[in-house]
Amino acid sequence: MTAPPASQRTLPALANETADIVSDVRALVGAGTAIDESLLDAALRGWSANTRRAFRSDLTLWGRWCRKRRVAAAAATPDLVAAWIRVLAGIDTSDETQRAMATIERYLVHVGWAYRMAGLTDPTDAPLVKLEKKAARKALGVRQRQARAIRFKGDISDFDSPAAGVCLAHLLKACRRDELGLRDAALLRLAYDSGCRRSELVAIEVRHIERDAEGAGTLFIPSSKTDQAGEGAYAYLSPATMAAIVRWRDKAEIRKGPLFRRVETHFDGSVAAIGGRALHPNSITLIYRRLIRAAHAKKLLGEMSEAELERWVDLPPSEWPNFYFRVGHEGGMEWQGSTSRRRLSASCVKRRSCWRRAGRLRMRVVGSASPSRATIVGARNMAA
Q1: Given this chain, do its domains 6-140 and 168-323 carry the same CATH topology?
Q2: Cβ distance 356 to 119 under 8 Å?
Q3: Helix pair 179-194, 281-297: axis angle to 10 deg
Q4: Would the pLDDT of 185 be above 70?
Q5: 36 to each of 4, 119, 268, how far by Cα in Å?
């Protein structure tokens, strides 16, 4: 039986986006260029929504570079690609913003795909380009800048010390006492327990959370940035987090659907209504900024100056803190306390899936002065 054309097999939800991407590729390499529909169809079905958006954005950047150099994109050479790499890496002087090596490599992958989809010679696959990438890695380094880790009590030397600076404890105190504050508190606690990215947080639904008989709970994470196949993963939620979620759900009368929703307010700041749709991932950053300002206004952040406050709130989303544990030497927190009181131990972490898969976690248990106390130290790469 003959398979239907690729254009007929394209998922309905991708139909408009397929046409847009075909238009983008043709705008880059020529309107009369034939596009390999089978290759395009397979790519669109295999790529995530974020990858498809990045593909289109990266083609726009490459097209702008070609126009700037007065070269038709269809006739681009490895020399043109190599010059682009040097500019993006900051090796050659330019008004272009310097990019991270991972970003440069993403640009090149997507540009290469566009040429292959159009049946043209890929200028990014030449030996010169490979050598320029190697030189750029040497100049920039390949270690990616990770999102900061936020600590439960801030930058303290002893767990019994009072909270200091920007930390979870202070952000919780900065939350309001109405529906908006209940949502923010539940969001903060769940994010801290699970280490979820912004996109994962807004995708959480009521059915993804299961409570146990002791008051704690389990969060099912259907998919994530590093789990495009949708195998799913689980995270442990503390009793305090579960209680915060219950308070938010009861007040907002949420029985099913998205857990974290928009809370609309009147001009005077009072709550007007609670939406039915999930928050947008960018809303997480806005919420965090608002809570930082609220904590500063309540004098919870100590002697933080206005300049330091603005430095915090003006950070780009990629550098905003994630709510998860990191090894103390890497800028995160060490959670030290009674393993029986916290109900956390090495076996508990594994048994209750407190963290993600073993391949994405480094955990060690360090004995302390008392046999009943331990330090649970976990680390995870959590860029949003």
Answers
A1: no
A2: no
A3: 110
A4: yes
A5: 15, 7, 56
The pLDDT assigned to 189 comes to 92
CATH class of this structure's domain 168-323: mainly alpha
**For tokens 């209940």, what's the residue?**
182
| pLDDT of 152 | 52
Digit-coded pLDDT (tens) for 2-54: 444 444 444 444 456 667 777 778 777 776 677 787 888 888 888 887 888 88
Contact 111, 120 (CB under 8 A): no
Q: Are 180 and 233 in contact (CB under 8 A)?
A: no
- Of residues 45 and 246, more confidently modeled: 246
Neighbours of 332 (CB within 10 A): 22
| Architecture of the structural domain at 6-140 | Orthogonal Bundle (1.10)
Q: Where are the domains of the chain?
A: 6-140, 168-323
Which residue carries 């008989």 as its tokens?
213
The answer to whether 258 and 204 are in contact (CB under 8 A) is yes
Handedness of CA 94, 96, 99, 104 (dihedral sign): negative
Under the banding of pLDDT at 50, 70 and 90, the label for residue 201 is very high
Tens of pLDDT along 270-280?
Answer: 999 999 999 99
Mean pLDDT of 232-260: 93
Lowest mean pLDDT among 53-67, 115-129, 337-351: 337-351
